[in-house]
Amino acid sequence: MHPLLLLLRSAVASLTLTAALPAEPALAPRSTVPGVPTREETLATLNAPRPIEALDSVFIEELTWMEVRDAIAAGKKTVIIASGGIEANGAYLATGKHNYVLRATTEAIARELGNALVAPIIPFTPEGDIEPPTAHMVFAGTISVSAETFEALLTDIARSMRAHGFEHIVFLADSGPNVAGMQKVAGTLHARWGGKPAVSYIAEYYNYVEVRSWLKTLGVNEVADGTHDEYSIASVMMLVDPMTVRMPQRIAAGKFSVNGVSLAPVEQTLANARRIVAYRAKAAVDAIRQKAPR
Predict the structure, then answer these.
(1) The whole model's pTM is what?
(2) Looking at domain 53-291, which CATH architecture does it have?
(3) What Rg value do the Cα atoms of the chain yield, rounded?
(4) Over the stretch 154-194, which tens digit does the pLDDT of each residue have?
């Protein structure tokens, strides 16, 4: 064979062999962006002391990561994962109705437990089919997710909480369509993880029927008017933010009532709202303590 052909064949073989070899992994460059630490620098801070006094809050989204770390280390090893929704609620209530209620009830539950924090309230829940729209989805502003998406979201949030060292993961539903998914995921994860951490769905929290009956002892006797509103919800929303029930607009229009019950005087309604929050919190706290890991 001609010497030039031999040389060409050798060169082609060398190139083929080189192409077949895996490329050497690229080293992660050090960050050159001001204020952005490298991974090594980040890991070095994990045990750094908190430089300032911690905020007095049970809501994880309001806390710094150091505050969450220190709260867990101090014994706050229960985490509440609650779901609300974005849905139509008559002419007067904000679409985030259940989320506002949960803002009040989850804080009361966590503070009464004394060993709990609250994960960000989940606003994205099953509210009906999207195409074609059914249930709440026929009303403007509603946001719906499929059951599969909702369950996947619950699963990943719970996995995140497990990674941080929580020992009891608690699911609460404030809206009926959320119950089945939360029950299913709680049961699945509790079994998968062998109770480490324990994962519990607290059915006792979703007690609106009992609350309506109990409210009669306070002189609140409702007659449903079909507006998807009720005293136990509107009053608690007022406690969180009066604008979520359009209080001044309703007063001006002479429509400051729900199911035949006046929401005035405001001071009395807010006092009842505090009683409602305490009633629902007690039901949840008792159940959580019964299901807590021993």
Answers:
(1) 0.87
(2) 3-Layer(aba) Sandwich (3.40)
(3) 27
(4) 999 999 999 999 999 999 999 999 999 999 999 999 999 99
